[in-house]
Amino acid sequence: MQSEQTIPSQSEGPGSADKAARRAVTVFPVLVLAAGALGLLVPDAFEGWGTNVPYLLGVVMFCMGLTMTPLDFQGVVKRPWAVALGLVAHYVIMPGLGWLIAHALGLSPQLAAGVILVGCAPSGTASNVVTYLARGDVALSVSVATVSTVLAPLITPPLTLLLAGEYLPVDAGSMVTDILKTVLLPVLAGLVVRFLFGRYVDRVLGALPWLSALTIAAIVAIVVAGSAAAIKSAAALVFLAVFLHNGLGLALGYGAGKLARLGPPASRAMAFEVGMQNSGLAASLATAHFSPLAALPSAVFSVWHNVSGALVAAWMARRNSSPSGD
C-alpha cells in the first residue's frame, strides 16, 4: 500500500529497511499466486463470494487511508509539475496501451474490456515500495499514487466508457458511484480515523500491509474461481496481454520521466507509477459491471506486476550503484 504501510520507517537502519521491503515484495506475489491457484483448483469453495469483492476492496482502501498523513500531499504543492506529469502519463499511457493491446491480440469483448479497465485504474498499491527498492523518488511516488487514487472516481469511468464502450456497454455513472463507495469513502474514513486516533493506529501500522495482502489475495481467489472454467483456454493469451501491458507501461513511464528531465530517481518512480495498477479495483469493477471473465486480466495483473516490479527495482538499484548509473 501507500506511504508508511509500504515504506520502511526512517528510524530503521538501511539493512533492516531493505530487508523489510524485500520481504513485502517477495511474500505478496507468492501469497497472491497461491490464492489464484486455490481459486482455480477449488472454485466451488468460493461460489457466491463475488458480491463480497467490493467490500474486500473497501478494507484495502481503508488500510491505505490509515497509513496516510498530510506529508503525502505536500509533494503535490512542492512539485506540482512532476506530480501532474505523473498523473497525465499514468492516465494516458496505460489506458492507451490497454486499448492497443486488446486490438492487436484480437481479444474477446470480455477480456478486452478487462484489459482496458486495468489500464484505466489508478496507480498500484505496491508502487511505493518498489520505488523505494529501486532507489527512486519515494516522495514523488507517494504523491502520484495518492492523487491518482483520489481522482479515480472522476477519471476511470469516462476513460473506460471511451475505450471499452466499443466492446461492452459501460454504465459510467454507476461506476463513479462504485468507486466512490469502494475507494474514496474508505480512504477518507481511514484518514479521519488516523487523525482522531493516531496514537492507537501507530501501534498497528506494522500489521496493515499483511491485512491488505491477505485481503487482496482473497479478491484474487474469488475472481479466479469465478472464471475458472475459461482460464484453461484463455490463460496464455491473458498473460501475454498483461505482460505487454505492464512491461510497456514500465518502460514508457521511465521514458516519460527521462524526456521531462526529472532526473534518474524521479524517472524510476515514474516507471512504477505508470506501469503498476490498482488491479484490485479493476477486478471489483469488472466483476460488478462486466463478468468474472472480464476480471481475469486484473487477477493476472495482480500477481505479475508485483513480480516484475520487484525484478525491475532490483535491476535499477544494482545499476544505480554502478559507476555509470542510469
TrEMBL record:
UniProt key word Cell division: no
Main location: membrane
Keywords assigned: Membrane, Transmembrane, Transmembrane helix
Stretch forming the signal peptide: none
UniProt cross-references to InterPro entries, sorted A to Z: BilAc:Na_symport/Acr3, Bilac:Na_transpt, Na+/solute_symporter_sf
GO cellular component terms given for this protein: membrane
Membrane topology designation: Multi-pass membrane protein
Transmembrane segments: 20-41, 53-71, 83-105, 111-131, 138-159, 179-197, 209-231, 237-257
Origin: domain of life: Bacteria
Keyword Transmembrane carried by entry: yes
Subcellular location: Membrane
Protein name: Bile acid:sodium symporter family protein
Source organism: Streptomyces kanamyceticus
UniProt lineage: Bacteria, Bacillati, Actinomycetota, Actinomycetes, Kitasatosporales
